[in-house]
Design goal:
The chain is mainly α. The protein contains five helices and no strands. The model has no long low-confidence stretch (mean pLDDT 82).
Length: 98
């Protein structure tokens, strides 16, 4: 009986340590922001960042705008204002009329 008890205690300690690790590493993340785990500089200028997402998504009205609007940033206007500030001249994909 004693080896089973030791094994259960060891499993309990390992699970408790894993829980503490998850809580520790997730304490600064924002669950509403899908980009929270990526540093802002990497997200904006990185090889798999904003530009990559835009070029491969091409439907910002489905994924980007709803989240940006929910956070109070705005939709297409938010994107355009950022492009204007950074001097980027791109055509934002438009939602097809139905």
């Amino acid at each position: 009986m004693k080896p089973k008890r030791i094994l259960r205690a060891l499993i309990t300690v390992v699970l408790l340590a894993a829980l503490v690790a998850v809580l520790y590493f997730s304490r600064n993340s924002d669950p509403t922001n899908p980009h929270a785990s990526i540093p802002e500089e990497t997200w904006i200028h990185g090889p798999k960042g904003h530009g990559y997402a835009v070029m491969n998504n091409q439907q910002p009205w489905k994924q980007c705008y709803p989240c940006h609007e929910k956070q109070g940033l705005g939709g297409e206007e938010y994107c355009q204002s950022c492009h204007d500030q950074s001097g980027v001249n791109v055509a934002i994909p438009q939602k097809p009329s139905q």
